[in-house]
Amino acid sequence: MIIIGIAGGTGSGKSTVVRKIAEHIHGGQVSIIPQDSYYKKAPLGIPLEELRKMNYDHPDAFDWDLLEEHIAALRNGEAIEQPTYSVPICDRLPETIHVEPSDVIIVEGIMALYRKKLRDLMDLRVYVDADSDERLIRVIERDIVERGRTAQNVMERYRKVLKPMHKEFIEPTKEYADIIIPQGGSNTRAINILRVYIEKILRKQQTT
């Protein structure tokens, strides 16, 4: 088993990198654990309009204890019940996803490399980098289509929340990365090198 952490700013192309790796790992089963699934439950009694104003790009928004517990369990060969989270209602759903241990576990999220305890469970740490203007364009496109926000709302949120949180909490985690992928998900050459490296580790584990 190899556990990989893939971090990077919102709109950097993390999901594309993860998908391309998962699609091309030969002979290996891949399980993807999105950090977004581990947002904390919404506090009781707070209206949805207020929940949507909360800062979800701060470390305090995540249930770190549960995420670390689940990754440790997978490393130990135990299955987990991964929570599910709904962005439209800003809360966890009652349904969970059953995840069995597999050859490759990918932990993907903006702060996947933020906590030392979580990093220490990883065999490989990756940071997906991208130009800030490119990230903003992707965030605008995603939030308008998937989340029903206006371009003005997205840009205001980017200026007040995403940009400062990125500089304070996300970008500094580059220093913990073993590999940095520039140009996000469009960097096919870097992704292929990473895939070959992962397969090499898996082959070595299978022969020992």
Describe the 3D structure:
- This protein has one domain: Rossmann fold.
- Helix 5 crosses helix 6.
- The radius of gyration is 17 Å and the shape is globular.
- The strands form two sheets. Strands 2-5-1-6-7 form a five-stranded parallel beta sheet, sandwiched between helices. Strands 3-4 form a two-stranded antiparallel sheet.
- It is an alpha/beta fold.
- The model has no long low-confidence stretch (mean pLDDT 88).
- It contains seven helices and seven strands.
- The chain starts with a strand and ends with a helix.
- Helix content is 41%, strand content 19%.
- The longest helix is centred in the C-terminal third of the chain and has 20 residues, at 151-170.
Do you know the CATH topology? Rossmann fold
The count of strands amounts to 7
- The level-1 CATH class: Alpha Beta
Main sheet strand line-up: 2-5-1-6-7
Please trace the helix and strand order, writing H or E for each element. Answer: EHEHHEEEHEHHEH
**Rounded mean pLDDT score:** 88
- Let me know the largest β-sheet: 5 strands, parallel
The CATH superfamily is known as P-loop containing nucleotide triphosphate hydrolases
Low-confidence sequence ranges: none
Which shape, going by the Cα principal axes? globular
Strand content: 15-25%
Q: Classify the secondary structure makeup into a structural class.
A: alpha/beta
CATH architecture: 3-Layer(aba) Sandwich
Whole-number count of domains: 1
Radius of gyration: 17 Å
Tally of DSSP helical segments: 7
Helical content stands at: 40-55%
